[in-house]
Amino acid sequence: MEQDKQIPSKPDQDLPPFVKTWKQFYRLLIGWLIFLIIAFYIFTVYFQ
Question: Nearest CA to 21 among 8, 11, 30?
Answer without folding.
Answer: 11
